[in-house]
Design goal:
Blueprint (H helix, E strand, L loop, with lengths): L10 E5 L2 H4 L40 H15 L3 E5 L2 H4 L10 H16 L3 E7 L5 H7 L6 H17 L5 E5 L9 H5 L10 H25 L4 E7 L3 E3 L4 H23 L4 H10 L7 H7 L5 E5 L4 E3 L33 H15 L3 E5 L9 E3 L2 E3 L3 H19 L4 E4 L22 E3 L11 E3 L1 H11 L8
Parallel strand pairs: 1-2, 1-12, 2-3, 3-4, 4-5, 5-7, 6-8, 7-9, 9-12
Antiparallel strand pairs: 10-11, 13-14
């Protein structure tokens, strides 16, 4: 059996989001984002109070501890670090014309630390943290005016950081908007009151904004590369029935359309048919069509699980914790949160995306959420997370197999490389990191950092460029 090899220059690191680690929700001129009032806050609230159970307002205090955390990433050997810029730190309301200098200066300091350690930044422009004002005043991305606000924001970032940041992502998991309209699309109208027309129009606005950002980057920061970011969800037929195979195709199409537009610059025929059959006519201008031709340089994606699909109404059920739908696969085990564990699915999706789009691929989220227990070993506090090591090892072996298949993979940044506050539940008990953060769901804890067992394991994987992985 051949050894697992990764290409020279493969980018190893980890991934985070501003709203889940920074804290300092009211410092440095920052405005409120949609995350500051969810999930335990009230949608549409004008203020957020730093109550013990609203963990996102403090996060893990990266805003004040970024130098310490980046030093830990460097100790692991990171060559890249994915983080997001909080839109409401740069434009507190989102619709201002001039940016907040204090917010810009914070990310200058973060970049300084990354450069000091030789870590390449991978920056997400919008990661589920749209300014709350845009949700309340414009109903988020249902309003075409958000394209211009985002364009101003993106241009500001490219002009300020374009010489320092090579890799950019426009929207996090852009294909989640239909399923989580407030978190993903800052749409303030309750989900049950939204029409499909509104949701698809919001999707179109985000796609146009993403394409405009790509165009601006090429004008302002010609050495930068811009990628889209999609939530990947490989799907299997629950049975050999052709009807189940058609269900798989339909499920795939509902996710692949976002990557198709980002890489091809036009809406595919199957999507136009879907709109027609739903009686939806999108407001698409000639300028929009021209904008969409600004296709991305690479495709990045998250991968956590796969699903199955069936045409049999009696067998349809939504997997626990899976906002994208689908049917649980009886051949797979699941995590504590009901997410089915499928390393081979990562190889399959890498091949599917490469064959379909012929763009370099970047795995920017993957990982296992678990209830870690801090223990003491030889006087040192740590977490014996062999379950996480096994999960990541098995997934990385499949990445190596995809590379051997001929897929061009740029890098791998597992999610929550340091424990973060959950975006969807605001818990800290669902931990992904190589670094344990002493903070609990009730807000107690010292915020002290401790290296888990997986910290040393991942450091060795990086040091050997994947040779330390075991089949």
């Amino acid at each position: 059996m051949s050894s697992i090899t990764f290409p020279d220059g493969f980018l190893w690191g980890g991934a985070t989001a501003a709203n889940q680690l920074e804290g300092a929700y009211d410092e440095g001129g920052k405005g409120l984002s949609v995350q500051d009032v969810m999930p335990r806050g009230i949608v549409g609230a004008r203020t957020a109070e730093p109550t013990p159970d609203n963990l996102k307002l403090v996060g893990i205090d990266f805003y004040h501890r970024y130098a310490e955390d980046i030093a830990l990433f460097a100790k692991m050997g990171f060559t890249t670090f994915r983080f997001s810029i909080a839109w409401s730190r740069i434009f507190p309301q989102g619709d201002e014309t001039e940016p907040n200098e204090e917010g810009l200066a914070f990310y200058d300091r973060v970049l300084d630390e990354l450069e000091k350690h030789g870590i390449e930044p991978l920056v997400t422009i919008s990661h589920y943290e749209t300014p709350l004002h845009l949700a309340e005043t414009y109903d988020g991305w249902t309003d075409r005016r958000l394209i211009g606000f985002y364009e101003n924001y993106a241009r500001t970032l490219f002009e300020r950081y374009g010489a320092r940041v090579k890799y950019w992502l426009t929207f996090n998991e852009i294909n989640s908007l239909l399923h989580a309209p407030f978190m993903s699309g800052s749409i303030n109208t309750p989900k049950e009151q939204l029409s499909e027309q509104q949701l698809y129009q919001a999707m179109h606005h985000e796609l146009v904004a993403s394409a405009r950002a790509t165009r601006i980057a090429r004008e302002v920061a010609p050495n930068a590369q811009v990628g889209c970011m999609v939530l990947s969800m490989p799907v299997y037929p629950l049975s050999p029935s052709p009807a189940d195979a058609l269900e798989v195709m339909a499920f795939d199409h509902s996710n692949l359309v976002y990557g198709d537009v980002h890489t091809r610059g036009v809406y595919p025929g199957y999507f136009l048919r879907t709109l027609s059959e739903k009686g939806i006519e999108l407001d698409i201008t000639d300028e929009d069509r021209d904008d969409l031709t600004n296709t991305v340089d690479f495709v990045s994606f998250s991968y956590y699980m796969s699903v199955a699909a069936t045409a049999d109404p009696a067998k349809k059920a939504t997997g626990e914790g899976n906002i994208m739908g689908g049917v649980p696969n009886p051949t797979l085990e699941a995590s504590e949160w009901g997410w089915q564990i499928d390393p081979i699915g990562l190889r399959l999706v890498l091949n599917q995306f490469w064959d379909r789009w012929q763009k370099p691929l970047f795995i920017v989220e993957n990982g296992l959420g678990a209830k870690d227990q801090l223990v003491e070993v030889d006087g040192v506090k740590t977490v014996i997370d062999d379950y996480r090591i096994a999960y990541l090892n098995d997934h990385l072996v499949q990445v190596g197999e995809a590379i051997a298949d001929g897929v061009e993979v740029m890098g791998y940044t597992p999610w929550g490389c340091i424990d973060l506050v959950s975006a969807s539940t605001a818990q800290l008990s669902k931990r992904y990191g190589f670094i344990y953060v002493d903070r609990n769901d009730d807000g107690s804890g010292t915020l002290e950092r401790f290296e888990k067992k997986s910290f040393g394991w991942y450091a060795e994987v990086i040091r050997t460029n994947g040779a330390a992985l075991t089949r």
